[in-house]
């Protein structure tokens, strides 16, 4: 599991080392780690043209020291100082000693010919979008030839939330220090950070336990244990699906198929799409009656394509009245938003899976801080909230959160959410803790998207088709295989 630490948590850990007089060492570790990544990205130092955008804080100091290391190896380094009087003095001296050039925001910045641009404008001390001068140069960097690399955090991105208010530096790579910050992997910030590289500067022993996490393939593999010699079709966890309708059986077919393909023990279906489900999945146990007619299950998935009329409402209420885990998706979310008391007060886990428009039906739009929004709704309803997006966020009522690392825009296709709810129901039926299980489902769904899209555009049914292969590859520790960048 990768911990995501806020700026305050990072500063608190830094303070312990600063109190021990280690300030210089911290910055040297950061700058050296940064220079090493830059060298790797450049492939060579000698003759490479590097522009540093340097703000007045320690973030600029990191850029200056790293620039000095690159200059010492023969790179042609130009530092653009936004505030010449306040630039990190030791960093500036080091750059000058190594032969780097120094200019101001109006000077010859080299951006039009740069091989690499380092964004040391602001780090975790930044507030709001970039100021005018910084915004102008960030824009030129984005449209110029140089590979854009952010120092610690892309300037203009809120390190804690990923919110971007105004202009920000668009990085292809971000080299971050001590811990991955949430804003690099969630919301708008994710798009500005690009590939995240974590540099260890010795903070780990002093960091507070993270309240937000990213799962790796190894974490998710623990939810995908193959059956043992004493297992049978019941012991692996039976999932029940209430979804679809006679007119629209597609959602039921996708959801049931995803549940079957994730953990092929037993899936029961109850509802008016029974004929369609039977035809598509002869392995499912199907009834056109009520949930109570379906037989025993260990978790329910309710919602995709089930409608929102009185019949649908009574089916949802029946499922929510059980003491079993329930996934509330799609039409079931619409009904739960109208009547939150259907969910509040349940003792068994409930997992709500809204996208932004469905989330808003519960009263408040998501806004720029997706983790806090998901946490608030989770605490309000006493339910796990899986907020879909390019980086899906999962929050538990106690504030524990997860940000998914495997999202791919290929998942933006009709029925993709129905597949996710089937995967999730299947994993929840094993009885594992709901929030981490929801995060594991989002991870697996994203991996399925990556695998299915390797050959071209995908349909939701392609996700279902590749699920067994996806499970196998995740079990096999596929992080490297699948190009997981993580941190
Ligand atoms: N502590 C340590 O030992 C270590 C710290 N490390 C590094 O230090 C970084 C934190 O440094 P920090 O605290 O000095 O703040 P920092 O991010 O440079 O920002 C302050 C500057 O930004 C400016 N500014 C603010 N908003 C702005 C905006 N919207 N647009 C434009 N400018 C804006 C603000 O200007 P002011 O408001 O003062 O005019 C001020 O000049 C951290 O991210 C990591 O890189 C590592 O070396 C490891 C060891
Ligand atoms: N741009 C994107 N990048 C990554 N994932 C996405 C993107 N757009 C949608 N998704 C994912 O695709 C799924 C879509 O779900 P949903 O909107 O419920 O679709 P549907 O209702 O058609 O089944 C979610 O898991 C969401 O996280
Ligand atoms: K920065």
Automatic annotation (TrEMBL):
Keywords: ATP-binding, Isomerase, Kinase, Lyase, Metal-binding, Multifunctional enzyme, NAD, NADP, Nucleotide-binding, Potassium, Transferase. Homotetramer. AMP binds at residues 388-392, 417. Belongs to the NnrE/AIBP family. In the N-terminal section; belongs to the NnrE/AIBP family. This is Bifunctional NAD(P)H-hydrate repair enzyme. Binds 1 potassium ion per subunit. K(+) binds at residues 59, 119, 155. Catalyzes the epimerization of the S- and R-forms of NAD(P)HX, a damaged form of NAD(P)H that is a result of enzymatic or heat-dependent hydration. This is a prerequisite for the S-specific NAD(P)H-hydrate dehydratase to allow the repair of both epimers of NAD(P)HX. Bifunctional enzyme that catalyzes the epimerization of the S- and R-forms of NAD(P)HX and the dehydration of the S-form of NAD(P)HX at the expense of ADP, which is converted to AMP. This allows the repair of both epimers of NAD(P)HX, a damaged form of NAD(P)H that is a result of enzymatic or heat-dependent hydration. The keyword Transferase applies. It comes from the Bacteria. Its EC number is 4.2.1.136, 5.1.99.6. Residues 5-209 form the YjeF N-terminal domain. One of its GO terms (molecular function) is kinase activity. (6S)-NADPHX binds at residues 58-62, 123-129, 152, 251, 305, 355, 418.
